[in-house]
Design brief:
This protein is of the alpha/beta class. 35% of the residues lie in helices and 30% in strands. The longest helix has 16 residues. It is elongated, with a radius of gyration of 21 Å. The protein starts with a strand and ends with a helix.
Length: 284
């Protein structure tokens, strides 16, 4: 399948944090969820992809073209939306749209109008009058109004009520069916369960896994442990969490038999949120 975005060995170092050899790819018409805890490197990666942050090294290609060589052409074909974007807060929505559309040769007033109506955004309202959730919808309207072939979205469902989140996920699925690719970061794993084809998981600036969503969860099993873990059980655990009724350990699917022999019981499939929580919890 055609790769719309390909990242190879992306590195960016700050005094207290570093991205290390980040590599993954997004295919045409696919939705990829980008997950990791706060400070893991999601936003730095997305801003590097957009060249809003300049990486120290690595390769970023869109549509088979190097970002550094064809940035202006590439950005006509992609949409980007993120929280914390500062517009002139007292400007009206319509004024911001009129300025933004001048940057895109494929801007479509009809599409923009449909999203304004769908999201109940009134052109005469000022940005200061919008809730945080409505600001998210406005950012998405701008990203969706120039027939982008690829969307890069940083926490697009943040601040939205459940109904609005469902509407947005339906839009994602509809766009993907039309061949649009989407990369979005999120903390809401239920959103990934509903719409993501693949998941990329980043921890402390490094990619832990990037694979189809079903493969991501199918790789692991959850085991219940009574009392403290033995040395053998601890060796098998990819992550451990303590609860009211004891501990749970995340193990690899291929080690189920060894886990049972080591005294682990109640081995069950693990959903995406459980996998990530246990991997983040470590094995302390």
């Amino acid at each position: 399948m055609e790769e719309i975005l390909c990242i190879r060995n992306l590195c960016k170092r700050y005094p207290s944090f570093a991205l290390r050899n980040v590599s993954f790819a997004v295919e045409k018409g696919r939705i990829m969820g980008f997950v990791g805890r706060n400070g893991a490197g999601k936003t730095t990666t997305l801003k590097s992809i957009m060249n809003l942050v300049h990486p120290d090294s690595g390769e970023i290609c869109f549509f088979g073209m190097e970002l550094g060589d064809r940035e202006q052409e590439i950005k006509q074909r992609i949409g980007y939306a993120a929280g914390g974007i500062s517009y002139y807060h007292r400007r009206r929505i319509g004024d911001i749209i009129r300025v933004t559309k001048t940057f895109y040769s494929n801007w479509d007033d009809g599409v923009c109008g449909r999203y304004l109506e769908k999201f109940a955004l009134h052109p005469e309202k000022r940005l200061t009058e919008l809730s945080e959730g409505m600001k998210v919808k406005f950012n998405l309207t701008l990203a969706l109004s120039h027939h982008a072939e690829f969307l890069i979205l940083d926490e697009p469902t943040s601040g939205l009520d459940p109904v609005s989140r469902e509407e947005l996920l339906e839009i994602f699925l509809d766009l993907a069916s039309q061949g649009v690719s989407i990369l979005f970061s999120t903390h809401i794993t239920s959103d990934l369960e509903k719409c993501a084809d693949a998941v990329t998981y980043i921890r402390k600036g490094e990619i832990v896994a990037s694979r189809p969503r079903e493969d991501f969860t199918e790789r692991y099993r959850l085991a219940a442990v009574r009392g403290e873990l033995t040395a053998e059980q601890r060796k098998l655990a990819q992550g451990i969490r303590r609860g009211r009724d004891g501990q749970t350990a995340l193990i690899l699917r291929e080690q189920e038999d060894r886990a049972r022999q080591a005294g682990m019981d109640g081995i069950t499939p693990a959903d995406l949120e459980t996998v990530i929580i246990h991997l983040e919890g470590g094995t302390l």
